[in-house]
């Protein structure tokens, strides 16, 4: 049985803003899926219907055999990490256990021993065990995002969602964070769906790619099938010569509209923002 199953999912905001149009797909246990697409394509809406924050206008969403109502089975990493800055990395990670512990016990710092162990293990996974007692507010953006991943892991979810988890980070920090997210997923066999704007980072870490454009899935395939032409079509529309088609055989842009290459194999900043 797939962990995620969407059947003919449609989401219309208000009268006529069609965010998702007839999306049907399955995601199997342990897959690391990256959702790509231009701004406004429907990526966030897709993730929100997976965690039950948004109800589809029509169609069916099934997570592990039931509707995504039991939130604790879906962990979420946000673009804005939403950490409590005055608390340590460890205590922030522990809040992932809140759905099991409840606020009152957490205020009394009465977390179960196994939750404390889970928080330390999660911090270890994201390379922050040594910084467990550091105040979140004094951490870098990348470190904060790693604490956010640790917090989601402590929740012990069956599905991990990450909505643009690295968009506010520089390319190096983005790679670091995605590396830790992938490591966490691999270690735990966690089914993961991440939406990303940075195509080069996505290509490096994703196993399967879902391309969304105007609310529709226009590509669904493995890394080998995610050619530069596919990426151009996704961001610029079919048949256009966009940024990515102009790459060398080794995947390094040869110039053209792509501009800067630097140490990044594909341009990051040039990913278009349509709005
Ligand atoms: N709460 C809302 N109310 C009305 N329209 C919305 C709402 N949320 C999203 N939309 C619209 O739905 C469409 C899809 O938005 P969504 O945020 O899912 O796209 P996205 O691919 O995640 O974009 P971005 O990459 O910019 O975050 C857009 O036209 C957007 O304006």
SSE layout and pairing:
Blueprint: E1 4-13, E2 17-27, E3 32-36, H1 43-50, E4 58-63, E5 74-77, H2 89-94, H3 98-101, H4 103-107, H5 113-125, H6 141-154, E6 159-163, H7 171-188, E7 191-195, H8 199-205, E8 208-213, E9 216-222, H9 228-236
Helix pairs in contact: 5-6, 6-7
Bound molecules: adenosine-5'-triphosphate (ATP).
Outline the structure in words.
Helix 5 (113-125) packs across helix 6 (141-154) and helix 6 runs parallel beside helix 7 (171-188). The protein has helices at 43-50, 89-94, 98-101, 103-107, 113-125, 141-154, 171-188, 199-205, 228-236; strands at residues 4-13, 17-27, 32-36, 58-63, 74-77, 159-163, 191-195, 208-213, 216-222. It has 275 residues and is an alpha/beta fold. It is built from 9 helices and 9 strands. It has a 6-stranded mixed β-sheet, with helices on both faces. Strands 2-1-4 form a 3-stranded antiparallel β-sheet, covered by helices on one side. Bound molecules: adenosine-5'-triphosphate. Residues 13-14, 17, 19, 37, 39-45 line the site of adenosine-5'-triphosphate.
Compressed to H and E, one letter per element, the order equals EEEHEEHHHHHEHEHEEH
Name the helicity range. Answer: 25-40%
CATH top level of the largest domain is Alpha Beta
- CATH-scheme architecture of the largest domain: 3-Layer(aba) Sandwich
* Low-pLDDT windows of residues: 246-275
For this structure, what is the CATH homologous superfamily of the largest domain? Answer: P-loop containing nucleotide triphosphate hydrolases
Number of helical segments with 4 or more residues: 9
Mean pLDDT: 84
Compute the number of strand runs: 9
InterPro entries: AAA+_ATPase (IPR003593), ABC_transporter-like_ATP-bd (IPR003439), ABC_transporter-like_CS (IPR017871), ABC_transpr_PhnC (IPR012693), MetN_ABC_transporter-like (IPR050086), P-loop_NTPase (IPR027417)
Domain ABC transporter: 4-239
Keywords: ATP-binding, Cell membrane, Membrane, Nucleotide-binding, Translocase, Transport
Pfam family, one: ABC_tran
């Amino acid at each position: 049985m797939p962990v995620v199953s969407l059947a003919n999912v449609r989401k219309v905001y208000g009268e006529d803003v069609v965010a998702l149009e007839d999306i049907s797909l399955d995601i199997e246990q342990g897959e690391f899926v990256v959702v790509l697409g231009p701004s406004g394509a429907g990526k966030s809406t897709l993730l929100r219907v997976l965690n039950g924050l948004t109800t589809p206008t029509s169609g069916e969403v099934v997570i592990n055999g039931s509707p995504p109502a039991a939130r604790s089975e879906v962990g979420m990493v946000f673009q804005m990490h939403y950490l409590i800055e005055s608390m340590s990395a460890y205590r922030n990670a522990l809040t992932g256990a809140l759905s099991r512990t409840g606020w009152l016990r957490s205020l009394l710092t009465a977390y179960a021993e196994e939750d404390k162990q889970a928080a330390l293990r999660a911090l270890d996974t994201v390379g922050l065990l040594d910084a467990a007692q550091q105040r979140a507010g004094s951490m870098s953006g990348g470190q904060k995002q790693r604490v956010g991943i640790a917090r989601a892991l402590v929740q012990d979810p069956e599905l991990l969602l990450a909505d643009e988890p690295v968009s506010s980070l520089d390319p190096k920090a983005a790679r670091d964070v995605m590396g830790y997210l992938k490591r966490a997923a691999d270690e735990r066999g966690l089914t993961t769906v991440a939406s990303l704007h940075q195509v080069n980072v996505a290509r490096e870490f994703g196993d399967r790619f879902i391309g969304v454009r105007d609310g529709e899935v226009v590509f669904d395939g493995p890394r080998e099938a995610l050619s530069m032409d596919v990426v151009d079509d996704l961001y610029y529309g079919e048949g256009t010569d966009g940024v990515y088609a102009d790459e060398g055989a080794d995947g390094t842009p040869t110039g053209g509209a792509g501009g800067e290459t630097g140490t990044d194999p594909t341009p990051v900043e040039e990913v278009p923002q349509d709005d």
